[in-house]
Design brief:
With 138 residues, the chain is of the alpha+beta class. The chain is 32% helix and 25% strand. The longest helix has 19 residues. It is elongated. One of its GO terms (biological process) is translation.
């Protein structure tokens, strides 16, 4: 859904991404390629980790738009890895709103697929989901 920013009249594109318990609400705004997460610069928020930062901007790089849109994010829950992956999904979904033709290259790269893996629950009698107590023969 395209919305307009009341203050500047610029077009904004929204996307929501989820991974494990992390949720990211992503806005794409025409700009210079900045990443702002929870009011902080993205490189500071993600501790200058190139894996997180590269993964977040990968959908934009696939389409050749890395310096044309600013990414504004409100991320909640999970850890840095879950948040980075949820932001990547949100960016990809926002790019699909920007132009429906963007869908097929993003889908081919796997950016529109939500990672369904989640933490397995702990079972009774075990220390964790699968870690059993040490076996004692006597």
């Amino acid at each position: 859904m395209q919305a307009t920013d009341n203050t500047s009249g610029r077009a904004m594109y929204w996307g929501t991404g989820r991974r494990k318990s992390a949720v990211a609400r992503v806005r794409l705004v025409p700009g210079t390629g900045q990443l702002i997460v929870n009011g902080k610069p993205g490189d500071l928020y993600f501790q200058f980790n190139p894996n997180y930062l590269g993964g977040i901007k990968a959908p934009l790089e696939t389409l050749g738009l890395e310096n044309e849109y600013d990414i504004l994010v409100k991320a909640e829950g999970g850890g840095l890895t879950g948040q980075a992956n949820s932001i990547r999904l949100g960016v990809a979904r926002a790019l699909c709103q920007l132009d429906p033709d963007n869908r097929s290259p993003l889908k081919a790269e796997g950016y529109l697929t939500r990672d369904p893996r989640a933490k397995e629950r702990k079972k009774y009698g075990l220390h964790k989901a699968r870690k059993a107590p040490q076996y004692s023969k006597r």
